[in-house]
């Protein structure tokens, strides 16, 4: 495969790889972006669209353990495990459980808090610099409850977040309906997060960043799947379906597909698995809501976008090879309808499934080991953390001081 002379090859063209590519290319680094399919068409296309710095606790919380059996037995519930995949999932799941203990849980929480504190300002600055303002809104977000038994946990969660500096306000039913009149009065209360943003058109953002990257001199190679990456005296030998590449430096940002390549490049086995997430896009409902609304009881989110209302959520553990179970996407409509005063228009609805890259400690891998840069494993927060993660990589690349302590995200925690 004949390619120009690049300083850095980025493996993976999702939002993490693309934002990093733009930031580095703008600073004079000659970057080639290798994407196995099409840029931005994986989890970066199908996520809930949130820039959500309020998510500062690990995805696995010991308080949730008692609810898991009921979730698994509920065919429309928020959690599903393909039992055929369980033997492969078990080592990761055991480490996930171990990280629920008080000491690691507190440490992970602090690392997420440090990473998320500057996410929204970083995104807004980045958006202004690269002409993305039209698609980023900061109208806040809501976390609602409809069960009386959920009121105290909601209030406790709000106090807990306020105590660590994540601003939120408890809304009564009346004030909640003032914020979102389309909601039904079965929604009893909500937390309002004013410092939360959402992207109204993910496709437009991806397209604009791709154009910007190319205009800056960057090079994109799509449908280029990297099968093997090995370091040798010449550099880093990449074996792809379009031929071999000798790279001077590489950055791995292949999301849920990063585990094998990370092992080849570093010798370290990262405890990474995929949470398969689903969404259902309702193209005729773009004006229903003003801001993202998450249901604590139903564990899914509704996000208003230019292309419609996106219903997103649920977790499925079935690996990277199993076919999508689109029934799980359509189930989201059953959760949304009872929360709204009038029925949703589901004509022309489009289901989707994608892979969230989740480490067993809920933290991304952001690191630099000689000629290899690592930037993957952001679980539910890839969009939220994309810009700050790219800034950490840039600090590594140019040997600059880090704005936050990078140690919690380094690969060495798994060795």
From TrEMBL:
InterPro entries: FAD-dep_OxRdtase (IPR006076), FAD/NAD-bd_sf (IPR036188)
Pfam families: DAO (PF01266)
Keyword list, A-Z: Oxidoreductase
Any one GO cellular component localisation term in the record: cytoplasm
GO molecular function: oxidoreductase activity
Keyword Oxidoreductase annotated: yes
Documented EC number(s): 1.4.99.-
Residue span, FAD dependent oxidoreductase domain: 7-395
Record field: transmembrane: none
Protein name as it appears in the record: D-amino-acid dehydrogenase
Species assigned in the record: Psychrobacter luti
């Amino acid at each position: 495969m004949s390619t120009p002379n690049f300083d850095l090859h980025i493996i993976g063209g999702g939002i993490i790889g693309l934002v990093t590519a733009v930031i580095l290319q703008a600073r004079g680094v000659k970057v080639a972006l290798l994407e196995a399919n099409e840029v931005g068409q994986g989890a970066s296309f199908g996520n809930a669209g949130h820039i959500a710095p309020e998510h500062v606790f690990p995805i696995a919380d010991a308080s949730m353990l008692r609810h898991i059996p009921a979730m698994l037995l509920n065919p429309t519930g928020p959690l599903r495990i393909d039992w055929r995949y369980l033997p492969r999932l078990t080592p990761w799941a055991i480490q996930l459980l171990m990280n629920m203990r008080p000491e690691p849980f507190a440490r992970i929480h602090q690392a997420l808090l440090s990473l998320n504190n500057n996410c929204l300002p970083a995104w807004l600055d980045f958006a202004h610099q690269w002409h993305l303002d039209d698609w980023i809104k900061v109208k806040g977000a809501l976390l609602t409850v409809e069960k009386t038994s959920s009121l105290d946990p909601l209030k406790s969660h709000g106090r807990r977040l306020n105590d660590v500096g994540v601003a939120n306000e408890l809304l009564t039913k009346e004030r909640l309906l003032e914020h979102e009149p389309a909601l039904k009065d079965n929604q009893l209360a909500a937390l309002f997060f004013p410092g939360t943003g959402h992207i109204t058109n993910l496709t437009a953002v991806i397209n604009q960043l791709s154009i910007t990257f190319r205009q800056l001199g960057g090079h994109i190679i799509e449908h280029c799947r990297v099968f093997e990456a090995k370091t040798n005296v010449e550099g880093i030998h990449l074996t792809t379906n379009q031929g071999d590449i000798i790279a001077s430096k590489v950055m791995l940002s292949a999301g849920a597909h990063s585990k094998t390549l990370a092992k080849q490049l570093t010798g370290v086995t990262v405890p990474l698995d995929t949470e398969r997430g689903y969404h259902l896009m309702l193209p005729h409902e773009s004006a229903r809501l003003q801001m993202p609304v998450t249901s604590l009881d139903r564990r899914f989110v509704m996000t208003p976008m230019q292309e419609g209302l996106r219903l997103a959520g649920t977790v499925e553990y079935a690996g990277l090879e199993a076919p999508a179970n689109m029934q799980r996407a359509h189930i989201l409509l059953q959760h949304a309808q009872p929360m709204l005063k009038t029925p949703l228009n589901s004509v022309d609805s489009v289901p989707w499934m994608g892979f969230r890259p989740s480490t067993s400690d809920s933290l991304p891998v952001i690191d630099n080991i000689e000629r290899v840069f690592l930037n993957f494993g952001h679980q539910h927060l890839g969009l939220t953390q994309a810009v700050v993660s790219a800034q950490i990589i840039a600090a590594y690349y140019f040997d600059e001081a880090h704005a936050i302590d990078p140690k919690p995200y380094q690969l060495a925690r798994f060795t």
